[in-house]
UniProtKB/TrEMBL annotation:
Keywords recorded for this protein, A-Z: Glycoprotein, Protease inhibitor, Secreted, Serine protease inhibitor, Signal
Identification of the protein by name: ITIH5 inhibitor
Basic and acidic residues compositional bias, start-end: 123-134
Secretion signal span: 1-16
Length: 487
């Protein structure tokens, strides 16, 4: 009872908000609490936003809220969205929400007037059989699509005139610990200005919360989001409060603050990172209703020697920002290599070029310098021979392992980076997957990195998972270098 009372009432200390201009303060004070009439709010936002709202014909979103409770690194999230059709005829409303691909939807309801419609959660087997039967039929609503490591949940409905619709989406996920932190991310992309926009996250960790942080909004699709270089402060109107085992974070931007971030309503990802106390070397065991979970994260383990082959896409589609991102990402990864590591670089388009033929070189200042020079001089040209590049990389690494007396503790791996889909050589995904698995033969791991919107994320994900690796994806204008630090 005490826990839920705290979660409901909470307590908080301000994360700090910059002083706003006198006019902005006046506008915020005048904003209506219920945001009931869009025209009233439109007169109180910047002129550009007012123009966009005047052109808007879709139902307006009066409320968008996210409430999450994280208990022992397991998150329960509820998204509530209310849309109002103030027009004289029925209009289509679209509710769209990005959730992590590792999360699963536990419930969905949609209310229109006095009627409530309930979603049905089905198992994978039932869903697959239904999909086979519906191949030649019009896809139902709601729908979901997987892209770039996220599930896009989408539901559409026609709202009668002078009425409103309310959407409630519930999903759950187990948080993963990466680079020493647990990260919870919620997408805030209502695609329009919202009168009542609120995110509330409550965290309970019995072992104790340490290093709680809320970085700036991450928005790879929206440039010019007002974030200055090096800014690490929380988003505006963020409030953070916590004790030893409890934490509460809220994000409640006004309409004026939303327009300063993004006038199109695509604010970005609201991120919370934290870690838990690990005083016991044996880990943390928790028991509930006859089930138990054992969290074990050993510290101070010495890094293992690595044998790494970097396989880099230099095809014509990499021209511009994507090739620049690739180079910066590789410079970052090269800096993380240690003196006991060995590496080589393969660049590929329709042709495949190996930096150091038939060998891996040790990590020395001169070799790192020469590798950076080689990467810097790469230029985009030709098609994308993914299969040939991976076969070359696997053969190079297999030969090195077989012909050299490598450290028994060493770990061998390929890091593969591309922006697109196979266009040269073998282009069938199933054959590429089979060929790659046969070439690697469980002797080392494959890690894949995708850049941009055209990348075949499913192919990269399957290649990594089938070869004991992991995959990462970055948008074209995202700071891949900083996020690959320690990769």
């Amino acid at each position: 009872m005490i826990l839920w009372l705290w979660l409901c009432l909470g307590f908080s200390t301000s994360a700090g908000q910059p002083d706003s201009e006198l006019m902005a303060r006046y506008l915020e004070e005048k904003l209506l609490a219920d945001y009931s009439i869009m025209e009233q709010v439109a007169r109180r936002v910047p002129r550009q936003a007012k123009f966009l709202q005047r052109l808007e014909t879709r139902p307006r979103m009066s409320e968008f809220s996210v409430k999450s409770t994280i208990i022992s690194r397991y998150a329960f999230t509820t998204v509530s969205c209310t849309m109002v059709n103030s027009g004289s005829e029925a209009r289509e409303a679209v509710f769209e929400m990005q959730i992590p691909a590792a999360a699963f939807i536990s419930n969905f309801t949609m209310s229109i007037g006095n009627k409530t419609y309930y979603g049905e959660v089905t198992g994978k087997d039932k869903k697959n059989s239904s999909d086979e039967q519906a191949k030649h039929k019009k896809p139902p609503s709601p729908t979901d699509g997987r892209e770039n490591g996220y599930e896009t949940f989408k539901a559409s409905v026609f709202i009668p005139r002078k009425m409103q619709a309310k959407f409630l989406l519930h999903y759950e996920e187990l948080l993963q610990r990466r680079l020493g932190k647990y990260e919870y991310t919620v997408s805030i992309r209502p695609q329009q200005l919202v009168g009542r926009l609120r995110v509330e996250v409550n965290i309970l960790e019995n072992s104790g919360i340490v290093s709680l942080e809320v970085p700036p909004l991450r928005n790879s699709k929206q440039k010019g989001n007002g974030k200055v270089e090096g800014d690490v402060s929380p988003p505006p109107s963020t409030v953070i409060g916590h004790t030893k085992t409890l934490a509460k974070v809220t994000f409640n931007p006004s309409v004026v603050e939303q327009t300063r971030i993004a006038r199109n309503g695509i604010l970005g990802d609201f991120i919370i990172r934290y870690d838990v106390n690990r005083e016991l070397s044996i880990g943390d065991v928790q028991i509930l209703n006859g089930y138990f979970v054992h969290y074990f994260a050993p510290t101070d383990l010495p890094p293992l020697p690595k044998n790494v082959v970097f396989v880099l896409d230099s095809s014509a589609s990499m021209v511009g920002t994507k090739l620049k991102q690739t180079k910066e990402a590789l410079f970052t990864i090269l800096q993380d290599l240690r003196p006991e590591d060995h590496f080589n670089i393969i660049g590929f388009s329709n042709r495949i070029k190996v930096w150091q033929k038939d060998r891996l070189v040790p990590v020395t200042p001169n070799n790192i310098r020469d590798a950076k020079k080689y990467i810097h001089n790469m230029s985009p040209t030709g098609g994308t021979n993914i299969n040939g590049a991976l076969q070359t990389g696997a053969k190079l690494l297999n030969d090195y392992i077989a012909q050299n007396d490598i450290d028994a503790r060493s770990v061998s791996l390929i890091i593969f980076l591309t922006d697109g889909r196979p266009t040269v050589g073998e282009t069938q995904s199933s054959r590429i997957l089979s060929n790659t698995k046969d070439a690697i033969h469980d002797k080392f791991c494959l890690f894949t990195i995708g850049i941009g919107n055209d990348v075949d994320h499913k192919l990269l994900e399957r290649m990594a998972l089938e070869n004991c690796g992991m995959t990462r994806h970055f948008q074209e204008d995202e700071d891949a270098a900083s996020q690959l630090k320690g990769f």
